[in-house]
């Protein structure tokens, strides 16, 4: 008996812990602390439905307990058959109408929010971004600004940014839990959604559709900066110079190795969007745009952005993201060569506006 009690206690403690820990996810990667318009509306709906569900649960439990206590078989009444209510008109109406009303209370605001979030009437005046989902990375192109980048999506705070999303391979799903809803990224039709971050910050994004072995590593970041900083970032990106000569001898050597090892077949060092056709219909680049690689918040979306991690990635991307489309597509690099290329890529820092300046 005692052992059984002990086990229950342990189970109880672990259950409690699980509930507590569920609350301490990564900041800016939780829908429960909304920091943008879409996430706020989703939170309203979460609260409304939770409230109704808890209400239903409580009412059902109260009736259940009352029934258990009041209608127990009592001593001396063993043969008593209680009143039979099968086919009772009043009861049937009550338990049909109440759920319908509850469903309506949930459905009406949900449909309203869905239409609100799909509203693109002011898209022409505001920032638009063509989002391209690829196994296992994200490409972002700003047709109005003629700028493109990958992995880190820069947006101005306090205004809507319209995303036009398409996939180059399989179905992905774009989700930045703390600021937006979730939207499928399909191969044939462009899905549109707007996002809006209230405050500056680095918000974590995830691919939310199983898309292959490295699906869970298909991370990206939304970097929200003030509108002035955003304009500055756009200007800096418009002025990136792919041919610029690096300052150090190591980085220069890296630049030559970059050119000699097929890297250019898949990676652009220029942020100007003129090289590829604007618009979500184009097939997009084969690999991430590296023009501001030194300012990235991560290497390949997942690793801390340092020289060592980058060298590791260049030498063996497969061990970091299984099934990625870079593995085996370039000549094998020695550690020395990978380090020189890392020197080169890390100094590609065209802007002062970076994830750090947004508060990462
Ligand atoms: C066949 C096309 C291809 C070739 C050739 C190629 N890459 Fe890549 N590269 C990719 C793809 C695709 C990814 C995205 C991988 C992922 O995250 O799933 C990538 C990712 C990267 C990243 C991480 C980018 C980021 O945004 O974090 C770096 C850095 C990189 N490649 C450098 C290189 C270098 C240096 C070379 C040459 C030695 C090279 N690549 C050759 C396709 C290629
Ligand atoms: Cu995906």
TrEMBL record:
It is a multi-pass membrane protein. The chain crosses the membrane at residues 45-71, 92-115. Residues 23-121 form the Cytochrome oxidase subunit II transmembrane region profile domain. This is Cytochrome c oxidase subunit 2. It comes from the Bacteria. Binds a copper A center. PANTHER family: CYTOCHROME C OXIDASE SUBUNIT 2 (PTHR22888:SF10), CYTOCHROME C OXIDASE, SUBUNIT II (PTHR22888). Keywords: Copper, Electron transport, Heme, Iron, Membrane, Metal-binding, Respiratory chain, Translocase, Transmembrane, Transmembrane helix, Transport. Residues 124-236 form the Cytochrome oxidase subunit II copper A binding domain. InterPro entries: CcO_II (IPR045187), CcO_II-like_C (IPR002429), Copper_CuA (IPR001505), Cupredoxin (IPR008972), CuRO_CcO_Caa3_II (IPR034236), Cyt_c-like_dom (IPR009056), Cyt_c-like_dom_sf (IPR036909), Cyt_c_oxidase_su2 (IPR014222). Its cofactor is Cu cation.
